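Everyone, describe these structure tokens:
***
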Amino acid sequence: MRMYDIIEKKRDSEELSKEEINYFVNGYVQNEIPDYQVSALLMAIYFNGLTDNELVNLSFAMANSGEKIDLSGIEGKKVDKHSTGGVGDKTTLIVAPIVASVRM
């Protein structure tokens, strides 16, 4: 599989397979795919969008690309909140107290 072919396929508005999306995400995370190729793919995605299947597969590929924490040892319901963080992160400031005030 080649990144060039994946970029070309998305540029031509074709649907990327689960394997192609996994190849892209895993390759980038492992520093095997250069930034300029990722930029080209993201530009093709911006102009042509993602199908529902691509979006689901991309979400799972991204979730599976990082470290996971096993929370099964904690009783009760668990909630996970993600944001990009950084200086502009206003989500945590609002969401955390709201969730903390709710009895589950």
